[in-house]
């Protein structure tokens, strides 16, 4: 409704968002899915007193005329901001009890209240717009995929349990006593079978189910991903499709700039060294360096680190530019923060070069001038720069130095929040050592193709085998993992044997897949960017629940629908299940 509707008699329905009583004139903001319209009613109108008392969020229908707003009441932020509706009559369509939370405000409320009354929470402006954005993004992506020549198929929801990945949600079978379906963690095997079936470009907006703990960027229970697979492709072919899709989507739905239209590729090993994580935020200019060897020099006498290095620890450091004039509290606060994260702290000094080079700070006295020059050469540090150091076992030092890189950059306000910085992380190792069992496991996706000549792979050194596996990362958030698939059964048996599986176990667990690959399978690969995380980035939200219509809480409970719930004895008997609950 706008100025072209002035003079028209209209019927308008919606929720009472707000009321303002000016004595002889009552203003009512009526809200529907499309926005807010200001309505007015004068005191002499027979309906004035009833509307004056009516509860907010009551659903009403008003009958009236569209008129100009006075100049001093025009609201240019609203589409309807130049007009208002003069109410002649109205009727109540739906009454409203006392509200447990106001709707007209985006004020923060506890998660419990918001999720229990999610239908009210969704009426609020910001989250309502987030859900509309989500719908538009999904529609846009779907159209883009069709334009790129992909066909949309739906894969089964009830399937078999997988031994890899996260914990499954299991569904008991009534017709097959003692057996269970699993809800799919992803349509992984099915989308590969679609390629074997002769379809060369598949996608779906797929629901996925994982019994995982909640995080800010991950919902417990279920989430959605853009699942896609392509036949007769190499890694670069997948990258080309995904880059085109993401660039178009982010340019369409955000005013933020893209740092790269062609996404840089960073190897897994380089990412772990330079950023301490395989989810690097490239908006952050700080780079991590390994200076373990320098701390082993004879002219470095920092014995605490030297002892740790002898037991296998690594030293990693971060250079901050032009920070010599920062107060001592800046450095001490970062050291204190590191201790709060479970680390022993961060050692530091500042380089100064006034006639001669020296290091100012708690550990500066332990370094000779030659050692300082070597550190400067290695890290590209200059006069006036400060260096923070961490020392621990590799996996632990990577964790703390990655967190420190983000913490320091935010304290120094180095991160441009108006940019999306995408990158590919590539060349993942095929296998890794499980830190708890000390056994070899798949590090990523067990169905991935190893790199190199498959006839010359050295299975005696499995930790050196790299795979055609890749992640797409944006602003430090992993949007998706993908891979070129292993379509050769004999090679798959060999790779699974490294992880401790016998041929019979592989046949039992992946019978459909192995059978299909034995009947002429094309080379194929794919990826599955997370819809929830894409929308979260576009909506500039920090928590995935802000872009999910009906999310669960941290304990995987739906407070609105009281799920999960108990079932009765009759249902249990039909499923041949008896409960043995811990007291």
Overall morphology = globular
Distance between the termini: 61 Å
Structural class: alpha+beta
Global mean pLDDT: 94
What is the overall number of helices? Answer: 17
Strand tally, please? Answer: 24
- How are the strands of the biggest sheet laid out side by side? 6-9-10-24-23-22-19-12
CA-atom Rg in angstroms = 30 Å
Helix content: 25-40%
Strand content: 25-35%
Low-confidence spans: pLDDT under 50, at least 5 residues? Answer: none
Major sheet summary line: 8 strands, mixed
Description of the structure:
The chain is α+β, with helices and mostly antiparallel strands and 583 residues long. Helices cover 28% and strands 25% of the residues. It has an 8-stranded mixed beta sheet, with helices on both faces. The longest helix is centred in the N-terminal third of the chain and has 23 residues, at 125-147.
Strand and helix layout:
Blueprint: E1 9-21, E2 25-32, E3 35-42, H1 48-53, E4 59-68, E5 83-94, H2 111-116, H3 118-121, H4 125-147, E6 151-152, E7 170-172, E8 180-182, H5 188-196, E9 201-210, E10 221-231, H6 235-253, E11 257-258, E12 265-267, H7 268-274, E13 288-290, H8 292-295, H9 303-310, E14 314-320, H10 328-340, E15 347-354, E16 356-360, H11 369-379, E17 386-392, H12 394-411, E18 419-420, E19 422-426, E20 431-433, E21 440-442, E22 469-474, E23 477-484, H13 489-498, H14 503-509, H15 511-517, E24 524-527, H16 531-538, H17 569-574
Parallel strand pairs: 3-5, 6-9, 11-18, 12-19
Antiparallel strand pairs: 1-2, 1-4, 2-3, 4-5, 7-8, 9-10, 10-24, 13-14, 14-17, 15-16, 15-17, 19-22, 20-21, 22-23, 23-24
């Amino acid at each position: 409704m706008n100025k072209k509707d002035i003079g028209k008699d209209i019927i308008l329905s919606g929720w009472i968002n707000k009321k303002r009583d000016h004595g002889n004139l009552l203003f009512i903001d009526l809200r529907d899915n499309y926005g807010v319209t200001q309505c007015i009613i004068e005191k002499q109108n027979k309906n004035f007193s009833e509307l004056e008392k009516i509860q907010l969020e009551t659903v009403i229908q008003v009958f009236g005329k569209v008129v100009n707003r006075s100049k001093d009441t025009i609201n240019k932020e609203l589409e309807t901001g130049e007009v208002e509706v003069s109410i002649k009559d109205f009727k109540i369509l739906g009454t409203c009890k006392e509200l447990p939370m106001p709707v007209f405000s985006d004020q923060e409320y506890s998660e419990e209240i918001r999720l229990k009354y999610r239908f009210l929470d969704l009426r609020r402006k910001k989250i309502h717009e987030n859900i509309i954005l989500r719908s538009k993004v999904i529609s846009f992506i779907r159209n883009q995929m069709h334009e790129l020549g992909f066909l949309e198929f739906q894969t089964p929801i009830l399937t078999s349990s997988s031994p890899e990945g996260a914990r499954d949600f299991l569904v008991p079978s009534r017709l097959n006593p003692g057996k269970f379906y699993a809800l799919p963690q992803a349509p992984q095997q099915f989308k590969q079978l679609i390629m074997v079936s002769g379809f060369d470009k598949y996608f779906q907006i797929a629901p996925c189910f994982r019994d995982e703990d909640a995080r800010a960027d991950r919902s417990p229970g279920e989430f959605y991903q853009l699942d896609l697979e392509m036949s007769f492709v190499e890694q670069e072919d997948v990258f080309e499709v995904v880059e085109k899709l993401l660039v178009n989507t982010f340019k369409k739905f955000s005013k933020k700039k893209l740092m790269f239209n062609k996404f840089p590729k960073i190897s897994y090993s380089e990412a772990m060294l330079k950023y301490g994580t395989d989810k690097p935020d490239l908006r952050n200019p700080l780079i991590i360096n390994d200076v373990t060897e320098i701390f082993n020099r004879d002219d470095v006498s920092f014995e605490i680190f030297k002892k740790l290095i002898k037991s296998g620890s690594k030293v990693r450091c971060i250079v901050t530019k032009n920070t010599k004039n920062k107060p001592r509290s800046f450095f001490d606060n970062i050291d204190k923060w590191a201790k709060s994260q479970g680390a022993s702290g961060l050692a530091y000094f500042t380089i100064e070069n006034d006639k001669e080079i020296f290091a100012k700070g708690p550990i500066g006295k332990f370094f000779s001038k030659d050692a300082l020059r070597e550190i400067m050469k290695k890290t590209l540090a200059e006069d006036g720069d400060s260096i923070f150091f961490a020392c621990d076992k590799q996996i632990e030092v990577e964790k703390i130095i990655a967190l420190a890189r983000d913490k320091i950059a935010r304290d120094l306000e180095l991160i441009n929040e108006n940019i999306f910085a995408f990158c590919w992380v590539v060349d993942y190792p095929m296998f890794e050592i499980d830190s708890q069992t000390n056994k070899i496991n798949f590090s990523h996706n067990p169905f991935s193709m190893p790199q190199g000549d498959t006839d010359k792979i050295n299975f005696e050194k499995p930790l050196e085998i790299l795979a055609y596996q890749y992640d797409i990362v944006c602003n430090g958030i992993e949007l998706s993992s993908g891979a070129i698939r292993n379509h050769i059964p004999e090679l798959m048996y060999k790779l699974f044997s490294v992880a401790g599986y016998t041929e019979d176990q592989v046949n039992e667990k992946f019978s459909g897949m192995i059978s299909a690959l034995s009947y002429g399978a094309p080379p194929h690969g794919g990826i599955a960017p997370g819809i929830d995380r894409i929308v979260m980035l576009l909506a500039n939200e920090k928590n995935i629940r802000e872009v999910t219509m009906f999310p669960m809480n941290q304990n995987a409970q739906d407070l609105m629908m009281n799920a999960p719930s108990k079932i009765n004895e009759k249902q249990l008997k039909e499923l041949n299940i008896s409960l043995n609950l811990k007291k």
